[in-house]
Amino acid sequence: MKKIVFLLLLCLTLCFASCSAPAPVERTVSEPETAVAQLTLYAFDGVSERVFGIPNLGHAFVAIKNTSALTLNFFGYNLEPDKEVTVGTWGQSAHWGIWINIEAEYMRIGRYKGIVSLSRGITPATLDKISIHMNGADYWTPTTNCSAFALALWNIDAENNNIGIKGLVTPGKLTAQIKQFESFKTERPVPADTLPCFKNGKEFETVEPMKAA
To answer: N or C: which end of the chain has fewer CB within 10 A?
Structure first.
C-alpha cells in the first residue's frame, strides 16, 4: 500500500512539474527587405570576469555593419562598405558618453567571454533615426547607462523584434532577453579595424586603446 501511495505521489509531482514549468521562448527575428546595414545588440553579464571581492556588472552595446555598396553615415561617422564598428556609452574621464570601437578592441584582446548578441537588418530610414537618437544621447549616467542606451537603439523601428525590460536596464537582464531569440549568438566578433574614438564637436577624436580603457 505504501509503495502504491509513493508511486502515485511521484506521478503527481512529475505531472505538476511538467505542467507548471514555463515552455522555452524561441522568438524569431524579422528582417526588412531594404536593409542597408546590420544592427547587433550585445550583452555581457560580467560573470566570466568576476573575481573575489571585485564585482563586475557587465556591459552592453551595439555594433553597426555596412552591408550596402555605399558609404553610410550615422552620428557624423562615415562607415565604409563591409566595415563594422561597435557603439556604446561609457562614463570615463576622457568622455562621458558615446564611444566607437572600444568594445571591438576589448574583444580583440580576449575580453567579454560568453557575451551574447542578436542581429537584425535595418533600413536607411532606421539608420537615420538611430543617428538622431545618438545626437541626443551622447552622455552617460547610472540610470541612463550603457544597457539603456544599447536597448534604445535596438528598439528603434524594431516592431516584432522589440525587447521590453521593466525598471533599470542592466546587462544581465539584456542577456536573458537576447537568449529568448533562437538566432542569438555567443562571442560574435567585431573587427578592430579603427582606433576607439568619440565625437568632440563635429570631429571625432581617436584615442589609443589602453587610454580609452
So the answer is: N
